[in-house]
Design goal:
With 576 residues, this protein is an alpha/beta fold. The protein folds into two domains: 6-165 and 250-312, ABC transporter type 1, transmembrane domain (ABC transporter transmembrane region fold), CATH 1.20.1560.10; 332-575, 3-Layer(aba) Sandwich (Rossmann fold). The protein is 64% helix and 11% strand. Bound molecules: adenosine-5'-triphosphate. Residues 109, 341, 346, 364, 366-372 line the site of adenosine-5'-triphosphate. One of its GO terms (cellular component) is plasma membrane. Its main location: membrane. Keywords: ATP-binding, Cell membrane, Membrane, Nucleotide-binding, Transmembrane, Transmembrane helix, Transport.
């Protein structure tokens, strides 16, 4: 039952054990008053004398038991919550570590909504199971067991009558679990799909509105909500007849005991006092059994939930070693690189050398594989074939942190944290002084907009950097890269959002960032990479040609076509 959750409980297992112990003692305290009651009822019915002192004592014992029950129950729940929340913490940290070891590309594919749901909602549901189902479930199971045992001590014939209805109720409950478990996978899958669609619907609301796709988007949402309803109803449909049966039978534990027990008393086979006591005790059986069994249904969910969480991020971890960067230079080689997204190969054996201290540009049609190649260099994904080396050392044969120290990657969409712009730049090199951060911002042409925002460099970036324009975000990212001052720079459409007015400044800033470094640059605006030391033309995942701008204009049809298209678009821009 605890197989899946046990590794995450660790030392907090002892708190769960303490919780169970407290709740069990609390249960014993809750059962004892029936015996005290019996001590009063039996002499009264038998016509024996009962002293006031004894009655007062029995009432006092009852009060002590009730107080003990309440105190221990609360203590037990406090232990179980302590254990539950620490276990949730362990699950979250362990998932986060697993997530960290995954290829970054695979994480992105999961999507923000899904990851958020796993880390908050899905894990939170486990709390109910650990904090309540375990102690309360066990307690509610123990009460009836103890009470029934006690009944046997009072009068075994009446006790047998009392439990006669239980097997029927238990059978109905077993049938419900069997039927329900078969439908549980589909029910949860429909719930997960609905949640993802809701998150996507909210995230994509802007696009939906701009393109007037409300109807279509809403239809998909409605469809998923409706299917969730259908799966839930299908689940209930198979469960409810059994649910109705056991819910009506189990609480009526005195079903047989009342008529048949009365007849036993009339026959003189049982005493009236025992009969009354057993009827009283029977009230302490039905409801707890129902409660315990309702918790029992949660245990398969516990394993299921943890299974699902683990499955979500069970991609093979990124290949890396414990070694530092020990390369002899900062030259880069792609050797027969093959790469597939799922089953579709998008790079088909790329051989490419990036000389140390030189700028190499990647050009090609949209979808030719430029960004993918850049992402492979920063080890977002593992290759399907071939290798990439930095200074002769395979990038899989070093720690990912060591590789990150050597490379600055500036992409089109750089994420800014919701802290100050200063702190966002400081990420580049956390040990940098304020002067160095300000200098990096100045060199990345941030000064002009920093003068406009209310607190200058100490202005908050907003959620994901939403307080800034795309171009401003890119300049902050560039400042970050400047501060990092890594020997290898990868620029993937780093100037995509820059307006023509700022482009020149930005290019000047980029020239500063890349001076003396090994640079891989991807740019759609071909004139920005015209002076690169080497230009590589990608065509549908193959390296079609390489050389300088002039060489390629002479030798490559593909490059000539791209250059012509770039020139035409520049002319078109002027006319427009
Ligand atoms: N995460 C992904 N999952 C599946 N396929 C992908 C993914 N990212 C890219 N692709 C596919 O891989 C191929 C290469 O994409 P890539 O982004 O590398 O091209 P690109 O040359 O950089 O394009 P662009 O110039 O438009 O940015 C394309 O066919 C694209 O559809």
């Amino acid at each position: 039952m605890f197989k899946k959750v046990k590794p995450y409980m660790g030392e907090y297992m002892s708190y769960t054990k303490k919780a169970i112990l407290c709740v069990c003692i609390a249960i014993i305290f809750s059962v004892l008053p029936y015996f005290f009651l019996y001590q009063i009822i039996a002499p009264l019915i038998g016509g024996q004398e009962l002293s006031l002192t004894k009655v007062a004592m029995l009432i006092a014992f009852t009060a002590v038991c009730m107080a003990g029950n309440a105190l221990l129950y609360v203590k037990g729940l406090s232990y179980s919550h302590h254990s539950a929340y620490n276990t949730l913490k362990n699950i979250r940290i362990s998932l986060q570590k697993k997530l960290e070891a995954q290829p970054l590309g695979a994480i992105r594919e999961l999507g923000n909504g899904r990851i958020k749901k796993v880390f908050t909602d899905d894990i939170e549901t486990i709390e109910i199971l650990l904090a309540h189902a375990i102690p309360e479930g066990i307690a509610n199971l123990l009460i009836p067991v103890i009470v029934i045992l006690a009944m046997f001590f009072v009068d075994w014939k009446l006790a047998l009558l009392c439990i006669a209805a239980l097997p029927i109720g238990m059978f109905a409950m077993g049938m419900m679990f069997k039927a329900g478990t078969a439908k549980m996978g589909a029910y949860y899958a429909a719930g997960a799909k609905m949640n993802n669609t809701i998150i996507e619907y909210i995230n994509g609301m802007e696009v939906v509105k701009v393109f007037n796709r409300d109807g279509e988007s809403y239809a998909r949402l409605e469809n998923d909500i409706t299917s969730y309803r259908d799966f839930t109803l299908a689940w209930y449909k198979v469960c409810w007849p059994w649910m109705a049966l056991y819910s009506s039978i189990i609480p009526c534990i005195a079903l047989f005991a009342l008529p048949v027990g009365g007849w036993f008393v009339l026959q003189g086979w049982s005493s009236l006092a025992d009969f009354i006591l057993i009827l009283c005790m029977s009230f302490a059986v039905g409801t707890p059994v129902l409660k315990a069994l309702s918790f029992a249904g949660k245990f398969p969910q516990l394993n299921y939930k943890i299974d699902e969480l683990e499955k979500l991020i069970d991609n093979p971890p990124l290949k890396q070693s414990e070694r530092d960067f020990e390369g002899s230079s900062h030259g880069i080689r792609f050797e027969n690189v093959h790469f597939s997204y799922k089953d579709t190969e998008v790079l088909h054996g790329i051989d490419l050398a990036l000389k140390e201290g030189q700028m190499t540009a990647l050009v090609g049609e949209s979808g030719s594989g430029k960004s993918t190649l850049a992402k492979l260099l920063v080890h977002f994904y593992d290759l399907n074939g071939g290798r990439i080396t930095l200074g002769g050392q395979d990038i899989r044969d070093m720690k990912i942190e060591a590789l990150n120290d050597q490379i600055s990657y500036v992409s089109q969409e750089q994420f800014l944290f919701n802290t100050s712009l200063y702190e966002n730049i400081l990420i580049g090199r956390p040990t940098a002084s304020r002067e160095e951060v300000l200098e990096a911002a100045r060199r990345a042409q941030c000064d002009e907009f920093l003068a406009r925002v209310p607190q200058g460099i100490d202005t908050m970036a907003g959620d994901g950097g939403k307080m800034l324009s795309g171009g401003e975000r890119q300049r902050i990212s560039l400042a970050r890269a400047l501060l990092k001052n890594a020997p290898v720079i990868v620029l993937d459409e780093a100037t995509a959002f820059i307006d023509p007015e700022n482009e020149e400044k930005m290019n000047a800033a980029i020239s500063e960032v890349i001076a003396g470094k090994t640079v891989l640059v991807i740019a759609h605006r071909l004139h920005t990479i015209k002076n690169a030391d080497k230009i590589c033309v990608l065509n549908q995942g193959n390296l079609a040609a390489e050389g300088t701008h002039d060489e390629l204009l002479r030798s490559s049809d593909e490059y000539r076509r791209l250059w012509k298209a770039a020139e035409e678009s520049a002319v078109w821009e002027v006319r427009a």
